[in-house]
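Q: Sequence in, structure out?
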Amino acid sequence: MKIIRVQDQIAGGQTAFSIIKDAMEKNKLNVLGLATGSTPLSLYDQMIHSSLDFSDVVSINLDEYVGLPAENKQSYHYFMQEQLFKYKPFKKNYLPDGLAKDADRECKRYDEVLATHPIDIQILGIGQNGHIGFNEPGTPFDSLTRKVELTASTIEANQRFFEKKEDVPTHAFSMGINSIMQSKQIILLAYGKAKAQAIKAMIEESANENCPASALQHHPEVSVIVDHEAAMLLETK
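A: Exactly. Output:
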């Protein structure tokens, strides 16, 4: 892993963008793996305000809630449209279908998308418990795309986005850890002291399924972009 320390989230977005820009200029970016949440927003802002043309690039997202239509404001389809796609068109945008009737078939479809569109660069955030995508602690490292049950803490954290508790999704479709590991290059972003313990476990503890992100220790090309707070517990300063 290459650890890149930055001043703040804005600088982190600039650093990640420079990696993407370099790959595009070398014609090495055909498929870009994307994430949701607040962590990658500074990167997406850099992409939006750049002169880069993504119309020949395919995007593939990590996950989507089960049961939410694409037009629902809490769906990841909606998030990506609002935060990136409506400003920067891509050749094709792939996300899991949250309304798929047959979960097994949808997971198989997504694995086929990944097989036919190998990801050149995958963007990741990390949860406070070390999760990547919706791969929570205990997820096997050989996992592929699957329907996952959200943890009670995740459901509780998401409740603020919905009018009623019963509206909060309880399941999601997520790329598995092995799916993520197939990416040629990975950029993991982490900001703030709330992520410090997860970053320490990912980098300095032995790879184990209690910290899903620690699987990245076995990947040949990972850039970990962290601010000072997220890196505060690392022994190597």
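Helices lie at 9-25, 41-48, 76-85, 103-116, 152-158, 177-181, 196-204.
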